[in-house]
Amino acid sequence: MSSQQSTATGPVLTGTPVVPGVAYAAVMWPGARPEIPSAAADLPEAEREGQAERFAVAASTVADRLRERAAATTGPAAEVLTTTAALATDKAWLAATDKLIRSGTPAANAVAAATEQFAQMFLTIGGLMAERVTDLRDVRDRVIAELTGTPEPGVPAPSEPTILLADDLAPADTAGLDPAMILGIGTRLGGPTSHTAIIARQLGIACIVGLAEAGTVDAGTPVLIDGTAGTVTVAPDPDEALARVQAYRREADEIARWRGPGRTADGRAVEILANVQDGPGARTAAQRPVEGVGLFRTELAFLDRADEPSVQEQAAQYREVIEAFAGQHVVIRTLDAGSDKPLKFIDHGEEENPALGVRGNRIADGDPGLLERQLDAIAMAAASVDPQPWVMAPMVSTAAEAREFAAKCRARGLTPGVMVEVPAVALCAEAVLAEVDFVSIGTNDLTQYAMAADRMRSELAALTDPWQPAVLRLIAMTAAAGSAAGKPVGVCGEAAADPLLACVLVGLGVTSLSCAAGAAAAVGARLSGASAEQCRRAAEAAVATADPAAARESALAALR
After folding, report:
1. If we measure between CA atoms, which residue out of 479, 485, 473 comes closest to residue 433?
2. Are 503 and 534 in contact (CB under 8 A)?
3. DSSP class of residue 236?
4. Which residue in 207, 409, 492, 503 is the catalytic one?
């Protein structure tokens, strides 16, 4: 939870740290969003058809712009822009808005009213669906701006380096930020695994979420942001602030010189891998000091498609990633759709709680051919490749599910594994590992499910912090089972990008860490300065605490 402290230089605002970094600059706030119309005058019947057509064109234009931006980027930014574009073409939202217009509501008013209907429905459902409310309202604002002829909303391009504060940021805003000009981000809302946090990590911008008092800082105020400590110091002493920035830059320069491979100070090997989503992103990641891919998210090939991509289309995209890391380790995750990533060519039906519904590997229960064809495509892409890529299934809950998935993989000569996202798998890790050759822990969902806390609710950010001792214990159980079975246990959630937490994860017995490629050097450099014994002591100290803040402090003390 965020708080405010007072110092001689100015108040210190605290939130949840998500991307390390130290920067000093003046504050900028995003530009005003378009005014949302409320009271709707009755639209003359003669104008209804024309306004319905104007709305359809505006929604299509917004979707096309978002797709163009997705095509110009890669990684998580590309995925969230693609899913946001899909919201602008969602049939139910388009139909609801069109119905309101044809019943006499002006187009802009109808967009606002229909959006709020869906927003309230998403918030009621909660979980990952609530995460889409910010995205949906961003689409609303862009469509209304298009209808009213006003400038497209978003973050204005600053004329000099700045610190961006906001209530929240839509994916389209965050994905377009220039790290050379936006030195730090602080948002009042959001959690450690929000879109803002994930994209900021990809861009390497210091970031803090859950900064409740952000609204007390006016634009133009100089601040010092510390993305490691989770603090924003308002109007600090300029000399002290610049000294902090210079010290961080010296540390960053040292980190930049780290080239791998991943290992502790006393030589224990720990693979440092990259999370990627497409061929261009993989080629960029391959320029970083990583040893392969620990998580290849395959959703991008399926999102915003009216029909399923063919086996040949899929294989071509998978081959791009494999070839970018020729001769290196690549782990491919099968389609993790459903919930916040619905597919247009699948009837997902109505779910009261999609985050706990038919998503990930569970989609194969209703459409086995979808998984079968994807595995065929992976096998086709992997033909004559050495080493062979590994394949893992998301949202597995039982050893029986793991056994069924493993059989399908082995029938195609593929090495099977599963994601540990459901606490039940961590609790029964020994039985699950008896069925597969490896597991990878997805800390984002594992934390959300273990703590029964929506990861998008800013007031619950402390609960969805991967430093929660309960989550660390689930990771420890999984790692212990992997060690006993002689099988690898990786971490591919956002927790692997935290250099301090990486040491704790290694101390718990994790054998590989997969993160945004931009975070790899910081993780590897931090590990190289700690022995395996120090990591073990840090892990024991963190697990023995009762809250995330104490876990961080105890781990840091042990590593000193």
Report:
1. 485
2. yes
3. -
4. 492
**Residue 348 among the catalytic residues:** no
Give the tokens for residue 345.
């060519």
Per-residue pLDDT of the chain (560 residues; tens, 9 = 90+): 445 554 446 899 998 888 889 999 999 998 777 777 765 668 899 999 999 999 999 999 999 988 888 887 776 777 778 878 888 998 889 999 999 999 999 999 999 999 998 888 777 655 556 667 878 888 999 999 999 888 878 788 888 999 999 988 877 788 778 899 999 999 988 777 677 888 888 788 999 988 989 999 999 999 999 998 899 999 999 999 999 999 999 998 989 899 989 999 999 999 999 999 889 889 999 999 999 999 999 987 787 677 889 999 999 999 999 999 999 999 999 998 755 566 665 665 565 666 677 777 787 777 789 999 999 999 999 998 889 999 999 999 999 999 999 999 999 999 999 999 999 999 999 999 999 999 999 998 999 899 998 766 667 777 888 999 999 999 999 999 999 999 999 999 889 999 999 999 999 999 999 998 988 999 999 999 999 999 999 999 999 999 998 999 999 999 98
Active site residue 195: yes
Task: Determine contact, residues 183/252, Cβ cutoff 8 Å.
Answer: no
Phi, psi of 130 (to 5 degrees): -60, -25
Q: How far is CA 106 from the centre of its chain?
A: 37
User: Model pTM?
Assistant: 0.74
Contact 113, 162 (CB under 8 A): no
Name 528's Cβ contacts closer than 8 Å, sequence gap at least 6: 258, 263, 264, 265
Q: List the structure tokens of 340.
A: 């916040």
